[in-house]
Specification:
The chain has 116 residues and is mostly helical. The protein has 2 domains: 1-39, no CATH class; 54-116, no CATH class. Helices cover 56% and strands 0% of the residues. The chain has helices spanning 18-29, 42-52, 61-74, 79-86, 91-110. α4 packs across α5 (91-110). The longest helix is centred in the C-terminal third of the chain and has 20 residues, at 91-110. It is extended. The model has no long low-confidence stretch (mean pLDDT 78).
Protein backbone atom coordinates (compact mmCIF):
# COMPACT_ATOMS: atom_id res chain seq x y z
CA UNK A 1 0.00 0.00 0.00
CA UNK A 2 1.19 3.50 -0.74
CA UNK A 3 0.25 5.84 2.07
CA UNK A 4 -0.02 9.54 1.55
CA UNK A 5 1.12 9.49 -2.07
CA UNK A 6 0.82 12.50 -4.35
CA UNK A 7 -2.31 14.43 -3.47
CA UNK A 8 -2.18 12.76 -0.06
CA UNK A 9 -3.99 9.74 -1.52
CA UNK A 10 -3.50 6.17 -0.37
CA UNK A 11 -3.16 3.43 -3.02
CA UNK A 12 -3.42 -0.31 -2.58
CA UNK A 13 -2.60 -1.57 -6.10
CA UNK A 14 1.16 -1.67 -6.39
CA UNK A 15 2.21 -4.49 -8.72
CA UNK A 16 5.80 -5.66 -8.44
CA UNK A 17 7.78 -8.37 -10.17
CA UNK A 18 7.86 -11.77 -8.50
CA UNK A 19 11.62 -11.59 -7.84
CA UNK A 20 11.22 -8.25 -6.06
CA UNK A 21 8.25 -9.59 -4.13
CA UNK A 22 10.31 -12.58 -2.97
CA UNK A 23 13.17 -10.33 -1.84
CA UNK A 24 10.78 -8.05 0.05
CA UNK A 25 9.24 -11.13 1.66
CA UNK A 26 12.64 -12.33 2.87
CA UNK A 27 13.45 -8.85 4.15
CA UNK A 28 10.14 -8.51 5.98
CA UNK A 29 10.40 -12.01 7.50
CA UNK A 30 13.45 -10.74 9.42
CA UNK A 31 11.64 -7.64 10.67
CA UNK A 32 9.85 -7.31 13.97
CA UNK A 33 6.06 -7.12 13.53
CA UNK A 34 5.96 -3.47 14.61
CA UNK A 35 8.52 -2.57 11.91
CA UNK A 36 6.73 -4.25 8.99
CA UNK A 37 5.20 -0.97 7.82
CA UNK A 38 8.02 0.83 6.09
CA UNK A 39 8.17 3.70 3.68
CA UNK A 40 10.57 4.94 1.08
CA UNK A 41 10.46 8.69 0.74
CA UNK A 42 11.12 10.72 -2.39
CA UNK A 43 14.21 12.05 -0.65
CA UNK A 44 15.55 8.50 -0.18
CA UNK A 45 14.85 7.67 -3.83
CA UNK A 46 16.72 10.81 -4.92
CA UNK A 47 19.68 9.80 -2.74
CA UNK A 48 19.78 6.29 -4.25
CA UNK A 49 19.49 7.65 -7.79
CA UNK A 50 22.27 10.17 -7.26
CA UNK A 51 24.51 7.54 -5.70
CA UNK A 52 24.08 4.95 -8.46
CA UNK A 53 23.19 6.87 -11.62
CA UNK A 54 25.79 6.78 -14.41
CA UNK A 55 27.85 9.92 -14.76
CA UNK A 56 26.21 12.55 -16.92
CA UNK A 57 22.73 11.05 -16.52
CA UNK A 58 20.18 13.18 -14.69
CA UNK A 59 17.50 10.89 -13.23
CA UNK A 60 14.69 11.95 -10.92
CA UNK A 61 12.01 9.85 -9.17
CA UNK A 62 9.42 11.08 -11.66
CA UNK A 63 11.66 9.88 -14.51
CA UNK A 64 11.26 6.34 -13.17
CA UNK A 65 7.49 6.76 -12.91
CA UNK A 66 7.27 8.14 -16.44
CA UNK A 67 9.50 5.39 -17.86
CA UNK A 68 7.44 2.76 -16.05
CA UNK A 69 4.17 4.11 -17.48
CA UNK A 70 5.46 4.32 -21.05
CA UNK A 71 7.04 0.86 -20.82
CA UNK A 72 3.75 -0.63 -19.58
CA UNK A 73 1.75 0.95 -22.40
CA UNK A 74 4.26 -0.10 -25.06
CA UNK A 75 3.95 -3.65 -23.80
CA UNK A 76 0.16 -3.73 -23.93
CA UNK A 77 -1.01 -2.77 -20.43
CA UNK A 78 -4.58 -1.49 -20.44
CA UNK A 79 -4.80 2.28 -19.93
CA UNK A 80 -7.42 1.88 -17.18
CA UNK A 81 -5.14 -0.54 -15.29
CA UNK A 82 -2.26 1.91 -15.59
CA UNK A 83 -4.52 4.65 -14.24
CA UNK A 84 -5.17 2.59 -11.12
CA UNK A 85 -1.50 1.70 -10.67
CA UNK A 86 -0.41 5.34 -10.98
CA UNK A 87 -3.24 6.52 -8.73
CA UNK A 88 -4.70 9.00 -11.20
CA UNK A 89 -8.24 10.08 -10.38
CA UNK A 90 -8.92 11.18 -13.95
CA UNK A 91 -8.22 8.96 -16.97
CA UNK A 92 -7.22 12.08 -18.95
CA UNK A 93 -4.17 12.42 -16.72
CA UNK A 94 -3.06 8.90 -17.66
CA UNK A 95 -3.79 9.49 -21.36
CA UNK A 96 -0.90 11.97 -21.46
CA UNK A 97 1.40 8.94 -21.67
CA UNK A 98 -0.36 7.89 -24.88
CA UNK A 99 1.00 11.02 -26.61
CA UNK A 100 4.51 9.70 -26.03
CA UNK A 101 3.50 6.40 -27.61
CA UNK A 102 1.99 8.33 -30.54
CA UNK A 103 5.29 10.16 -31.08
CA UNK A 104 7.11 6.82 -31.16
CA UNK A 105 4.68 5.49 -33.74
CA UNK A 106 5.14 8.56 -35.91
CA UNK A 107 8.95 8.24 -35.77
CA UNK A 108 8.76 4.52 -36.54
CA UNK A 109 6.43 5.10 -39.47
CA UNK A 110 8.77 7.71 -40.95
CA UNK A 111 11.45 5.03 -41.26
CA UNK A 112 9.26 2.87 -43.52
CA UNK A 113 10.37 2.91 -47.15
CA UNK A 114 7.67 2.40 -49.74
CA UNK A 115 8.64 1.03 -53.13
CA UNK A 116 7.25 2.94 -56.06
Amino acid sequence: MVRQGKGKKDRVIIPIQKDVSNLLGLYMDRMKPKDKLFTITTRQVRYILKKYEPEGLDVHPHTLRHSFAVHCLKNGLNLRSLQKILGHTNLNTTQIYLDVIGDDIKKDFETVVFNE
